[in-house]
Fold this sequence. Notes:
It comes from Guyparkeria halophila. The protein is 79% helix and 0% strand.
Amino acid sequence: MPENVSFFAALAVGFFGGVHCVGMCGGIVGALTFGLPAETRERASRLFPYLLAYNLARITSYTVAGAIAGTVGLLGLSLVPMQQAQLVLLAIAGLFMVMMGLYVGGWWFGLTRIERFGSRLWRYIEPVGRRLMPVRSPGQAFGLGLVWGWLPCGLVYSVLIWALSAGGPLQGALLMLGFGLGTLPNLLAMGAFAGQLSAFVRRPWVRRVAGGMVVAFGVYQLMLAGARLAG
């Protein structure tokens, strides 16, 4: 499987799906920074290290989860012949790329239903994050971000299921890393730039072009799987 195609597709999904991330996580960021001194919260230069720590830790959790998913997928596919396993990987990856592209383009939002499956796991993880609040230092923010990375989110969990088909732990980690890096600009943006970025991402034509590109990646993967099956 061409990892570079999957990586950039995941990057696009993370960036253009960032409107969902801002809507869901924006309030969480506000709650996490609530305990900081007023002069820190009101000055972007002082707040940035905290936001960066949160988000780097969040992406670290995504990457670890991707490695786990890639390992699980590899172990499962080791039970079938290698050629069949490769076809299954290509088909699943292509299918999820198509679904992700439909989500990014604003044509279908069924993937968000997946997040209810993570609510049970979150019940055990959330109390750990509560013990780290209120945040007083970037190091503490990093620890809280590691917990935040496991927050139930249909978009995140959908990419994680996609990572099952990545082909191994490294490929799964890279896929989730690409997705996490894609979400970073939307969640780090502040002030006037945040408004401009949000307005750009929300434009229907921008989302449709991006979604169409991801769908095209997925169709390519499905066609490749079909050609190998026919051969």
